[in-house]
Structures are given as structure tokens and as C-alpha cells.
Amino acid sequence: MARDPRLAQLGAFLHARRDETPPPASAESERRQVPGLRRGEVAALAFVSTEYYTRIEQGRVLPSTDVIRRIAGALGLDADQTRYALDLVAVADPPPANPEPSDPLRRLVERMGEVPAILVGPATSVLAWNSAAARLLTDFGAVPPEGRRYVQMLFTDPVFQSRFADLEAMRRTVIGIVRASTPAGPPSGDWIDELLRTDPCFKALWERNDVVRPHTRLRVRLRLPGGVEETWDQVVLQVVDDAHQRLIAFVPAG
């Protein structure tokens, strides 16, 4: 029987975080074969058996939320990481295959005037944008719909990439958001497979299994046309009746 993709992703996520967790000070003199904690050490800290924790990492068992919280404490997970692990063991509706913004939302984005704004859907697909966003970031209309994802364009669109003074940090953040936004299982798609084959940077960041929860504001350093750098606030507003759509507005930092 095939493993539940949510549990497989949970196991990969916990394994990655375990590798990053420093071993206890008492183990400094030991000769260790793993970069972080051993499975048995995590199990002891979480008050479960090593066999049970091993089965969790292998995606063979559905742990309770209480066990997830104890493992999160053992691994020192932050709030975003803990929420992601809890989402993976909860029942979640998958995002629609072909989301469409409502007409009022599309008109709102278009009429936000000089405030650059874009509407994103599942996997950061860009559903709508205004002319101010096109001037600030890139000509979204010139990008084929199948390649018009915020995360994807951070690796494929040279103009879009050039707008971020710290491109590496933005890539890490948006990849983390894509992972955290798909609690029904690991993200998938032809575009992911293609980037994994062709872009070593994407592959390295993707396989870290990092997660970032979308927050109301993200401060970014943008490189404007002409090379001038400015600090902007990326303000994120959740669409009430569609949890998979978010309005992103860019406002110069005060």
C-alpha cells in the first residue's frame, strides 16, 4: 500500500529538522555518525519509543497532535514549523486545480492606482496584477500562464529576479511558503519537476524542507529600474472566502 503523502512529507520534514538540531552538550566528545540529533534522542525528549519515532520519520504512522507538539519541543521548532507539522496530520481540502479570482477582486487589483498589487493563488500562481506591479517587478502579461508563479519566476525570470536585492533570502522565504501552504501533502507539479532537473539552486533549497507561514507583512529590499535600492513592505491580505488566494500590495517603507 502506498504511503500517505502527508505522512511521507512529515517524515522528511522532521528528518531535515533533526539533522539541523545541535546534539546535547554532553555528546560533544562523542564520535557521531549523524549531523544533528539521533532518532533515539528525539524519541527520549518527546517521551515516545525510538521505534515509534522511527515509524513517524518513515511515514508509516499517523501521530497525534500531542505527540507532534512534543516532537516540536524536542527539535526546537518555531511556531511556523510546528503549525506546518500539525497541518500535515490534519485533514485539509486540496486547493482548486484552476483557481480564478472573482471579478470584484480583479477590479480591485487593477484600480489600486500607484500601489503595486498582485493576487496570488495556490503555489503562488499570479492570478491578477496592476500596471504599477508590472512596472515595479516585471511584465507579468509577457510570462506564459504556466510559468506565471511568484516562486517559479524567482528562478526563471531575469527581470523579476533582478528586483530583489537579497534574491537568495526571497527564494528561501517563498519556497518555504509554498511548502507550508500545502498541508494535504508535499507540493507537486511539472514546474517543480522541471526546476529540480535544471536548477541546482532550486533543488538545494527545495530539499531543505524549510517552511514559512505567510505573514501579514514582509520587509524586502527592492532594486528599482535604474538600479536604485529601496526598502518596501510587502503587505499580505487573505481573501476571506478562498483560503488559497492572497492579495499582495507593495508599500514603500516609512
UniProtKB/TrEMBL annotation:
InterPro entries: Cro/C1-type_HTH, Lambda_DNA-bd_dom_sf, MLTR_LBD
Stretch forming the signal peptide: none
TM annotation in the entry: none
Cited PROSITE patterns: HTH_CROC1
Domain HTH cro/C1-type per the UniProt entry, residue ranges: 30-82
Pfam families membership: HTH_31 (PF13560), MLTR_LBD (PF17765)
Gene Ontology molecular functions: DNA binding
Annotated region described as Disordered, given as residue ranges: 11-34
Protein name: Helix-turn-helix transcriptional regulator
Organism lineage string: Bacteria, Bacillati, Actinomycetota, Actinomycetes, Pseudonocardiales
